[in-house]
Amino acid sequence: MSLEFGGVKACQDVNMSLDPGILYGLIGPNGAGKSTIFNVLTGIYAPTRGDVRLDGKTLVGKKPYEVAQLGIGRTFQNIRLFKELTVLENVMTSFYSSSKTTITDMVFQNGHFRQEEESVRVKATELLKVMGIEDLSQVPAGGLPYGKQRKLEIARALGLSPKLLLLDEPAAGLNPSETRELTELIKQIQKSRNITVLLIEHDMGLVMKICEKIYVLVQGQLVCEGVADVVQNDKRVIEAYLGVD
Amino acid sequence: MNEFIQHTINGLALGSIYALVALGYTMVFGVLQLINFAHGDIFMMGSFIGLYFIRYAVPNIEPSLGSALLVIVVAMIGSAILGVIIEKFAYRPLRKAPRINILITAIGVSLFLEYGGQLVFGASPQFFPDILPRKMIDIGGDIILDSNQITIFVVSFVLMLILQYLVFKTQFGRAMRAISHSLETANLIGINVNKVILITFVIGSSLAGAAGVLYGVAYPKIDPLLGLLPGLKAFIAAVLGGIGNITGAVIGALLLGLSETYVAGYLSSTYRDALAFVILILVLLLRPAGLLGTKKIEKV
Amino acid sequence: MTKKLNATLLLMIGFLVGAVLLNFVLSSFSFQPSALFWTKPGRFDGLISPYYYSVLILLSINIILSVSLALLNGFTGLFTMGHAGFMAIGAYSSAYLVSTYLPTAPFVIQLAVGALAAGVFSAAVGFFIGISCLRLAGDYLGMVTLGFGEIIRIILLNIDAVGGARGMTDIPVFMNLGSVFLLTLITILVIKRIRDGRLGRAMLSIKENEMAANMMGINPLSIKVRAFVISSFMAGVAGAFFAHSEGYLSTQTFTFVKSFEIIAMNVVGGLGSISGAILGAGILTVLPEALRKLQDITGIDIRMIIYALTMILIMILRPQGIMGNREWKWLSSK
Fold first, then answer.
1. Chains C+A touching (3+ CB pairs under 8 Å)
2. Beta strands at A213-218 and A23-27: parallel, antiparallel or unpaired
3. β-strand A196-200 against A164-168: which pairing, if any?
4. Contacts of residue C212 in chain A, CB cutoff 8 Å?
5. pTM here?
6. CB-based contact (8 Å) between B221 and chain C?
7. Under DSSP, is residue B45 helix (H, G, I), strand (E, B) or coil?
8. CB A69, CB A132: distance < 8 Å
């Protein structure tokens, strides 16, 4: 799978190419436009120039739910869980597009319905297990502690069986031990499912530890891309973060 | 052509009454984002306050401009008080509640006023007494100007001028507009939000009350359910003009009054009421912000 | 605060029970355990008096209306104010079809054809209104559906074939309590099952956070339209039941005030809850009727005033409605 896009907005000129199975990081000071890129990738915004392609096919003009169905899953910087639904139900929502129960099935609760429901339930529970929150499956999502909510967001996005997983500051607000745990988890998931991950983060420790390649975005422009060492020592990156002396 | 002018005059008169009511809707929506369903019934109450004032306080009143003004002022005061009571006891407690709750309450207040009105005033229509000497002026070409219509024009115009001054040239007006933009921010910069909202209701309700008396003058048969349809139409007028926008409310109302009269005159009176709803739907589907509105509509 | 809420609830329930009991005592009813109430109507020599019979039918119809609105409002988060319009379409189409083409058919056929036609017509209209309006959010959707509801009513008012302004009379009356009750139960079950399936989850997710639902591969417009169509279908069927239990129709029954009444049932009972919708329908149907005897004695019609006050008080004192979004045991999905 490959994802490329270029030219997000008139004021930016971003070219990124993501190869399958790699864990990418996207960093940059606040307001640099990182979430904007996510929004373009998922079809919320349309690029004023340029294109977004997944496996060679363009995504521009597709609605967000179509993009999701094609295999791009995401989490949100400010958590967007379905608070009144249970933890399990939250994850089950992302299986909606891949299920095939019809209204008649639902009304009569026939064999097909029960089969599908069970299958979705099992798969969703699996994802909860992976994220370590299976024990909370019947709890309304709104009642979860913050760290577990973040994990639930990831589990839910995984329900799409995505080829590309976009994580928007997954460790924001977590304490160091939670962050460590999450870091490991992300790496594990990525490797075991061989999915491409693009990760926005401010926690440099996390980024440098697991990202195989990093893009740096400053004020809407890509100023650097490369592996951790390269990026850490890049002058422009240092400037952007620490200011010019 | 003459028929057209006649219809135009009639339409403008109708529109002026709508305008006075529409202003209340738009102002309350501006500060509270609430469609005050009870507003049309305050309009109705204005009518009845006028009626009962005449009947019990000044039963032998001589039809004259002075009498009319007196009745109007009394109705305005009465309606304002009613508006304040409603705001204080029904809406204010729900200031922080989800939107649908306050909408339901508004509906409840509306029903309460209607059926309460039927209970107290009786459900059958009553005649609004003459408080204005009525003259039909023939201005040539079969066009008849009803002196009542002139009164309606003049009174509405004056009231709207006063409102214009209040909203755009006073501190109160500035505060009201600030709240329309953001209630929280207005709070933070020290505006006494409760007071401003209260005054908004006072103004809106008194305008509706005045409209109620004018309505009684123009269409002498009044009953407690009269607020329903005209109230809804005034609301639609406000939406047409851009809900939240005061000038828009007036323009929308005049346009609605005119088009209704034209449709009734040239097409068919049975579909007259449908026109308002067609306009509502067209506006919301094609240009939800209305003619002058600038509020961004959340389209998904 | 909780003490105050509980006290109010108790007071209300007590008042309701008291009113019903009072009614009970003051009215006379005949006990004739001969026929079951599953008979053709007009033969009220069943177990209950004609008055209670008609109230129960009305209650069932209101339950269907309330529950179908809950699908839209409480589950999918769509605030609409035009539900009465769909009821009207259903009522008039069934009434017309059955009076004109099946006036002497066996009642099961009349019921089947009438209800089906009612549902299908309402759903069709609902579909078209839905795809044009459901992109609007919040209040605007409410307003535009209000407009459509009224336009439907005005159009019906002007169609002479269904009676026009005089209303439609001589409609075959074949709804009996047994069939209405059964069909109401079926409606409730259907809605419960929809809610329990993936469509229900999708609807709730849209209500909770539409953007997130979008990102999870759910097409919001498609779900909303589906909810709208299902809801309109049921409202239409309820309308058919109404037509064939009253025997006559007047467009005055189907104004936006009726839509408001149905919304009130939802809100009083609890917005996100099927049980709430049923309870709300129960309270707001029975309350005015229970007070009717009071009205007969005192000569004052305070029923609607009590109705309005109930709405206001519940909103102020218990805004989440009586059930909140909880369900009774048998409706719970767990």
1. yes
2. parallel
3. parallel
4. 76, 80-82
5. 0.85
6. no
7. helix
8. no
